[in-house]
Design goal:
Shape: globular
Distance between the termini: 80 Å
Number of domains: 3
Number of helices: 13
Order of helices and strands: HHHHEEEEHHHEHHHHHH
Strand content: 5-15%
Length: 333
């Protein structure tokens, strides 16, 4: 059993790369990106920074976390805008050094935080579900920033993108898997996206080859059994197969696919808690929260009638205007 896909070294990727620092000497722009939790806000912030439009950055993009009201407003635009917004808040001396975003309904984000201590740097892997999707070692420390290889090993040990992909794509289609991973990013490790892209492709290709091999073995075994049976037995076997499909051998391998990639303490799939708001799109607020009243004022009614009269032509305009005045005036009695 290995702790990660069997691709120890990658051409063009330096696993020994170590950033000088995670903290203030990195520059204001990188520090801003390392503090913002929301995936979509961070992407928009990066576009403005790359374009040199720093004076156009709105306050809500630069904030590390949004208020609950702002999160709900963001979620009403589209559920994917909630991605990353429910990560734990960063402390004043903590930054996000790496994150992976997947194409779930609410675009879930899992990240690695680094906090500066007196003599050591303290790390933690966090998710948006209070740690329910994590397993294995979630914290560690070091006297200097991690190398890219050390970061990969630590991240995979607490949360594995390969486990997530195996649960969502039982055919191990490489293109679909890579498309499911929305973003792999870091302000400190420029090659992390290339590293994970190559890891995913190599792992999925190997698993797909094993899957095809298992299917061929099953087909050969079934053919051999059919050749050695009587016509009556073959007919009964075919009827049974058509009515109750048999489970091929590779089904067992698929259910234990991560056993050849990563060791997990929790082998059952964990489900997110409902309390933190990341299970479904935001609930509909009451009308009273949206507006102060449920009726039009007399002045507003008259303006509506006048607008309706101007919108149409000839008798159509009069027809549009008159019916609107009936219920309005009845409501005022």
């Amino acid at each position: 059993m290995t702790s990660r896909p069997a691709v120890p070294e990658l051409s063009g990727v330096d696993l020994g790369f170590r950033p000088r620092s995670y903290f203030w000497r990195i520059g204001v722009e990188a520090h801003l990106l390392a503090r913002v939790k929301g995936a979509e806000r961070k992407a928009a912030l990066k576009q403005l920074i790359d374009a040199g439009r720093l004076n156009e950055i709105p306050d809500f993009l630069a904030h590390s976390a949004l208020s609950e009201a702002d999160r709900q407003s963001f979620g009403r635009i589209h559920p994917s805008f909630l991605g990353g917004e429910y990560l734990p808040d960063l402390s004043h001396n903590e930054v996000m050094i790496a994150s992976i975003t997947i194409a779930s309904t609410t675009q879930d984000v899992t990240s690695v935080y680094a906090r500066r201590g007196r003599k050591r740097i303290y790390y933690r892997v966090v998710d948006e579900y209070g740690g329910e999707t994590l397993s294995g070692r979630r914290t560690r420390s070091s006297t200097q920033p991690l190398t890219l290889g050390q970061l990969e090993q630590f991240f995979n040990g607490a949360w594995s993108i390969f486990h997530v992909l195996a649960m969502n794509f039982d055919d191990y289609d490489v293109a679909r898997m890579l498309g499911f991973v929305v973003r792999i990013e870091s302000s400190f490790y420029p090659e992390i996206a290339a590293l994970y892209g190559a890891r995913i492709e190599a792992w999925a290709t190997a698993r797909r080859a094993e899957l095809d091999s298992d299917e061929i073995e099953v087909e050969d075994r079934e053919s051999a059994n059919s050749a050695g049976s009587s016509p009556a037995m073959s007919k009964a076997h075919n009827l049974q197969s058509n009515t109750f499909p048999l489970t091929s051998l590779h089904e067992k391998d698929r259910s234990q696919s991560m056993s050849t990639v990563l060791a997990f303490k929790n082998r059952e799939r964990s489900f997110p808690a409902i309390e933190n708001g990341k299970v479904a799109p935001p609930r509909r607020v009451t009308n009273l929260e949206r507006r102060s009243r449920e009726h039009l004022t007399p002045t507003e009614v008259e303006r509506l009638i006048a607008s309706a009269a101007k919108a149409g032509r000839h008798w159509i305009a009069r027809r549009d205007a008159d019916p609107r005045s009936v219920p309005a005036r009845a409501a005022r009695r």
